[in-house]
Amino acid sequence: MQLPAANLIRTSCLLLLLFPFLFAATINAQDASRSRQGADTVLTMWKDYPGATPERTPRWTYEQGVVLLGIARVWKNTGDQKYFDYIRQTLDRYVADDGTIRTYRVEEFNLDNILLGRMVLLLYRETKAEKYRKAADLLREQLRKHPRTSEGGFWHKQIYPSQMWLDGLYMAEPFYAEYAATFHEEAAFDDIARQFILIERHTRDDKTGLLYHGWDESRKQRWSNPSTGRSPNFWGRAMGWYGMALVDTLDYFPKAHPKRAELIAILRRLATAVAKYQDQKSGLWYQVVDKPEGKGNYFESSAAAMFVYALAKGAHKKYLPASSLRVAEKAYRAILSQFVETKPNGLVDYKGTVSVAGLGGNPYRDGSYEYYLSEKVVTNDPKGYGAFIMAAAEMEPIKKKNKP
């Protein structure tokens, strides 16, 4: 039976009106699986432990911590035991029955080595196995003895004396806060707040609101400004680490603590600056954030994922206004179109991550614009991949299972 012409016209118009919504629903349904796709890729690509390669000797590293934090979020969202098992399998490579940690050396006083402690605390909470409590205590002991600046800020590493880097806040403070909350060290929160406040004071640029990568109290480093001690450039991932550190630390920071409002104010200042420097056409951020016209500058994927996570979580937790979520949504759409590539087997590549960036060391890294542009850009770097999973999980409308 043929529909009358008027009915055909009405049906066609209705379909045209509905098409954008049907299209959006299809995209949303696909995107809603991205964190799980990423987690499943990790379990396939790095079957033994995050970042595993035939050439790499397994060691206790922050890179594994970033990936496992993403896996932990997917486990909490889905309740799928395989993700928890992967976390435990990885940690049990290192944590012995007596709580010692293979390849970890407390005397290195390296903040990077603290990050995996968050997974140690997760395993202790879930299993109550005493070895995880002892391992967490060992990492907490490092912070008690860790060298500090004259104002009490943690050095980034023993080999980088008198220096605070933005990276270090993510490496240490969320663990420090979770440990303090778990084992009732209320006085520790004064120290945790101090770390965020000090580094913002010493690295924040009043004109842009952006944060320089590092600060050298001694002014001895060639990269440090003789007057301010600051490094010379704004590196995207460094600010991404700092933003994620704030939102994750606030999960454990006492609501009645007098410094909580100050930490939220710091997060808001950072969010304002990050939004200001988002490229409006692409929705992304440059490797050196404030130099869009710089020769060779490019959109970098780990910073984008970290900003999405920090801004979205900050908005969801009501630390940040709704406008921050809109910035995150625009960036997340750009991440999916520019950096995420789904392979025929359903696994996901995450492209466009700078492999590393630091200050000082040997060979010497001078913090110049040219230095930041000289480091290799790679696919499926653990730091970028873990941040992508966290960003996807924060953006997805997934029903939470009965997990903490």
Brief summary:
The chain is mainly alpha-helical and 404 residues long. The protein has helices spanning 5-31, 34-45, 62-78, 81-91, 117-127, 130-145, 166-182, 188-203, 236-250, 260-276, 301-316, 322-338, 369-374, 382-395; strands spanning 163-165, 214-216, 340-342, 348-350, 353-354, 377-378.
Describe the fold and architecture.
With 404 residues, the protein is mainly alpha-helical. It has one domain (40-395): Glycosyltransferase, CATH 1.50.10. The chain contains 14 helices and six strands. The strands form three sheets. The chain has a two-stranded antiparallel ribbon with strand order 1-2. β3 and β4 form a beta hairpin. The longest helix is centred in the N-terminal third of the chain and has 27 residues, at 5-31. The radius of gyration is 22 Å and the shape is globular. 47% of the residues are buried.
